[in-house]
Write a sequence for this structure.
């Protein structure tokens, strides 16, 4: 009957209200015309006839309103009724409804949370003025092949002066400073020293106060220095008091005037620039992203000559200048400088958009996680579809009865669509909650150097997309059962009262296809997770070269105010040597401490590099890359278990006034002393000669994933440093030592801030935070997908077993053994799983390439990972098959016969 | 009907019944329906345009009548309504219940005399 015309009316009402109104007007006009014609026939003149016709009719407008009202009210009324009935139906089968809603919520929640994070971290523009114009200018070194080196101060000044493609060029560097707190523990703060151009270049406005005064940036500026506070520090330490401007705070014991407060987002991503350098600067081991203090940078070409590269350069492209133009121009400037200054031999420039430096390294891991979450959603939609299809099949009799009683196809359709829509909406509502929780979990799990995650909010677009997919899946899979019910004439289904042994090959093919797709996706994700896990374990098992277990790390920085270091007297910095030695001695005496040591950097801090030469081979050394210089005390090698490979390591006798000695690591011995023993040779560095006394093992100071670099160890007593890392080895829990170590420092100098107190093993673990983050998420999503696929497979098989109780009973009555029945069901499950695995293998080949770049140590084709993944999927599929198989044998032959 | 404007359920149902009955004689456009009712009721039932067209819309939505554009007797484009199978069943059911209703009312009135 008029199902189609009904749909037409309905859709018409929705989508082409104007056309409907035109039709109505034409109809009413026709009516008035006919009425007029009748009046004329009765002898009225046409104008009068028309007037009478209109009066007789009570007005066109009234009729139009009436029809419209009828249309509108009907649509709303019917929708409300459909939803009410659907809701009642869903409440009547709570298990079904809960299963669909939970499944969808899981997928929607996971996808929305991860997509929000990815959009918020990767795609949001950086919070600076015209951020796409900001570029990082690196120096390159053809000798060592590095392309991400900080610049020298004289180079910076020359770039700034000679470049026309850059509208501005600012310099900055990372610092750590102590902030004295009246009555509290002194704190170590992460600071950024910035040149005068920096804030204007970024387009950052202070929250209160103003920029650093211009005079503060002049070399040798007199008077108390000025500082800017970061918003977070201002709120935590100074209760967001705007009157802080103009007041004085003690930075490393030196009073400094607060010029203003910078908003929270002012530092966004800048510290990732520091971390992107080939030779990580002073922040090597620090992973925090926040900048608490902004200090003036004084680019002084005299104090910092061309052969040291301490500063990072941030430029803004001039109006109309392209990135390529800037690249070419700066390369030309660098070439000129190379010709002008021998220190610039082999030096060039490399210009990258700021956005790329900050975010590009995050793109692949985040997109892998996003892809994994999306696959969870797809699999979840598959399961919801299963459940809807299964419900449609189970309700075939109910549907048939309704059709027989006169329900129109459109009624069934509307009913099923309303149900599907309600389920999808429920999934969305719960999904939003899960997404909010998921985002919180992401923040907790994320590595500390993942920028901007704190300011990420749930993205409505991500939610909308996920919800649309869920809704589409629900609606799409609500349709087939309806269509089936309508195709299948009522009588057949009514008479097939045995809950439909002929359950419809169409429905089964569809559901089998769904299961195969789910198993395939599960395999894809499991392979990805297995590869990541293999990579992670390979990485975690890498020998860092030092023994982190049982070692507690604590860090100090000795401020110049109390620990003077006059470069004219270097290395005879007695106060610095004295406090370091006394603190180490105090720690050595602590109960439970087996060894204590001090170094300028901890073994996972890149520290710094320096050029050097072997005496007698200076010409050759001109082409050598710079070497990592590690200042350590005599106890360092023992405390960290570094092996002595040749000669001797440092001893207490290698003191300040004695002959300068050095130890090279194995890498340096191989690279720079090829074939000869380094022991007894002399190296030149810092304008001084050092006699190599021994060779030690290698430490992976660049992190576990990177090969250990060549390194040169010099005694702290002969090369003092303001930064002091204390290392204490104990047989017990290193963290238990922490209070005693803090107390030891306080006993020497209560004003010293002790920071970075953690077991060295935790430092090592933190260096793997990004890999762990990606692994955990992909692992969780793989597990979820696998579970969903297993539920899908189980559901399909269990459903068939339930439908075929009769047939199974007959088979058993005719002598089939339980084993044969089990085999029958198992073979079905195995077939589906095999198809799924085959399809999944193809997908996984493609997917493993995407993941491969994130995997350390093993290739994307790693057989162990693939075997593990396939085994896991197979085992889970088998488990999902076994249960229905067992149930099949439980069918009592006689009962089945009787039921038939 | 007539000029009362909003009609109550009973009256509304009655108009529906009258339209269905009219259409059972053959497809007709809105004006034709109103003319038919006017003539058959000897001008007692003057159907207001503001009631007729909403009623037709209602009947169409319920699937009792179908509408399509055609040519009127004087070669004008007009919208013709036709009774559907469901409409026929509805007409039968409604006629039946109307007869029972009026019969009951008649009996009450007769008894009250």
């Amino acid at each position: 009957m008029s199902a189609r015309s009904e749909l037409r009316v309905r859709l018409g009402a929705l989508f082409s209200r104007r056309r409907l109104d035109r039709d109505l007007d034409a109809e009413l006009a026709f009516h008035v015309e006919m009425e007029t014609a009748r009046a004329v026939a009765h002898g009225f003149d046409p104008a009068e006839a028309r007037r009478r016709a209109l009066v007789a009719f009570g007005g066109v407008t009234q009729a139009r309103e009436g029809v419209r009202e009828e249309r509108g009210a009907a649509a709303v009324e019917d929708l409300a009724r459909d939803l009410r009935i659907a809701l009642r139906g869903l409440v009547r089968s709570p298990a079904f409804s809960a299963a669909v809603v939970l499944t969808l919520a899981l997928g929607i929640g996971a996808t929305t949370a991860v997509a929000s994070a990815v959009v918020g971290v990767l795609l949001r523009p950086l919070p600076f003025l015209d951020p796409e114009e900001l570029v990082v200018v690196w120096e390159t070194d053809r000798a060592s092949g590095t392309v991400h080196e900080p610049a020298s101060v004289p180079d910076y000044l020359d770039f700034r002066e000679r470049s026309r493609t850059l509208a501005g060029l600012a310099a900055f560097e990372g610092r750590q400073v102590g902030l004295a707190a009246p009555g509290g523990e002194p704190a170590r703060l992460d600071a950024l020293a910035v040149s005068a151009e920096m804030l204007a270049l970024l387009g950052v406005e202070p929250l209160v106060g103003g920029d650093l005064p211009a005079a503060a940036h002049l070399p040798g500026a007199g008077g108390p220095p000025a500082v800017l506070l970061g918003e977070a520090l201002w709120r935590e330490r100074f209760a967001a008091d705007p009157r802080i401007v103009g007041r004085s705070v003690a930075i490393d014991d030196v009073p400094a005037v607060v010029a203003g407060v910078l908003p929270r987002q002012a530092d966004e991503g800048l510290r990732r620039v520091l971390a992107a350098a080939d030779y990580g600067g002073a922040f090597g081991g620090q992973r925090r992203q926040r900048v608490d203090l902004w200090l003036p940078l004084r680019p002084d070409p005299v104090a910092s000559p061309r052969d040291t590269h301490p500063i990072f350069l941030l430029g803004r492209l001039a109006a109309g200048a392209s990135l390529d133009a800037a690249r070419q121009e700066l390369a030309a400037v660098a070439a000129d400088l190379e010709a002008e200054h021998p220190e610039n031999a082999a030096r060039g420039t490399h210009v990258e958009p700021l956005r790329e430096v900050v975010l590009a390294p995050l793109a692949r891991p985040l997109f892998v996680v996003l892809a994994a979450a999306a696959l969870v959603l797809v699999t979840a939609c598959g399961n919801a579809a299963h459940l809807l299809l299964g419900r449609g099949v189970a309700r075939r009799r109910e549907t048939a009865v309704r059709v027989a009683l006169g329900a129109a196809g459109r009624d069934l359709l509307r009913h099923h669509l309303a149900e599907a829509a309600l389920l999808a909406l429920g999934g969305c509502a719960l999904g939003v909650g899960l997404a909010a929780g998921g985002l919180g979990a992401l923040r907790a799990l994320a590595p500390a150097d993942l920028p901007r995650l704190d300011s990420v909010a749930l993205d409505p677009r991500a939610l909308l997309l996920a919800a649309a997919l869920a809704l589409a899946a629900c609606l799409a899979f609500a349709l087939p059962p309806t269509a089936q019910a309508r195709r299948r004439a009522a009588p057949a289904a009514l008479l097939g009262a045995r809950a439909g042994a002929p359950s419809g090959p169409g429905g089964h093919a569809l559901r089998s296809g769904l299961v195969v797709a789910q198993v395939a996706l599960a395999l894809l994700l499991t392979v990805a997770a297995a590869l990541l896990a293999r990579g992670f374990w390979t990485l975690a098992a890498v020998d860092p070269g030092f023994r982190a277990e049982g070692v507690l790390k604590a860090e100090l920085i000795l401020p110049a105010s109390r620990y003077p270091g006059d470069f004219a007297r270097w290395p005879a910095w007695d106060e610095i040597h004295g406090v370091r030695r006394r603190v180490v001695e105090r720690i050595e005496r602590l109960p439970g401490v087996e060894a204590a040591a001090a170094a300028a950097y901890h073994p996972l801090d890149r520290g710094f590099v320096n050029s050097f030469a072997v005496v007698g081979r200076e010409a050759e050394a001109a082409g050598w890359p710079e070497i990592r210089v590690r200042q350590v005390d005599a106890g360092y090698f023992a405390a960290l278990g570094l092996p002595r490979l040749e000669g001797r390591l440092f001893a207490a006798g290698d003191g300040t006034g004695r002959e300068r000695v050095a130890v090279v690591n194995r890498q340096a011995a191989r690279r720079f002393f090829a074939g000869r023993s380094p022991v007894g040779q002399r190296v030149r560095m810092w304008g001084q000669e050092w006699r190599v006394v021994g060779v030690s093992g290698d430490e992976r100071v660049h992190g576990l994933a990177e090969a250990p670099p060549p390194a040169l160890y010099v005694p702290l007593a002969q090369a003092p440093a303001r930064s002091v890392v204390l290392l204490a080895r104990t047989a017990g829990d290193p963290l238990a030592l922490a209070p005693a170590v803090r107390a030891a420092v306080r006993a020497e100098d209560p004003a010293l801030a002790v920071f970075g107190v953690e077991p060295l093993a935790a430092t090592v673990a933190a260096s793997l935070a990004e890999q762990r983050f990606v692994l955990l998420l992909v692992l969780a999503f793989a597990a979820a997908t696998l579970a969903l696929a297993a539920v899908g497979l189980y559901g399909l098989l269990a459903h068939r077993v339930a439908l075929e109780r009769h047939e199974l009973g007959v088979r058993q009555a005719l002598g089939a053994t339980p084993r044969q029945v089990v085999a029958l069901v198992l073979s079905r499950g195995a077939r589906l799983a095999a198809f799924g695995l085959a399809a999944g293998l193809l997908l996984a080949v493609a997917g493993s390439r995407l993941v491969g770049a994130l995997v350390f140590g093993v290739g994307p084709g790693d057989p162990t990972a693939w075997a593990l993944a396939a085994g896991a999927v197979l085992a889970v599929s088998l488990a999902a098959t076994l249960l229905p198989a067992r149930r099949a044998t439980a069918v009592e032959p006689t009962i089945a016969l009787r039921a038939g | 009907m007539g000029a009362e404007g909003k009609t109550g359920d009973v009256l509304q149902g009655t108009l529906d019944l009258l339209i269905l009955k009219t259409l059972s004689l053959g497809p007709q456009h809105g004006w034709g329906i109103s003319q038919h009712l006017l003539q058959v009721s000897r001008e007692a039932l003057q159907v207001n345009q503001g009631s007729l067209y909403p009623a037709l819309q209602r009947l169409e939505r319920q699937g009792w009548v179908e509408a399509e554009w055609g040519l009127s007797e004087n070669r004008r484009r007009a919208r013709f309504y036709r009774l559907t199978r469901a409409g026929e069943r509805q007409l039968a059911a409604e006629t039946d219940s109307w007869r029972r209703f009026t019969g009951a009312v008649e009996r009450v009135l007769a008894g009250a005399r």
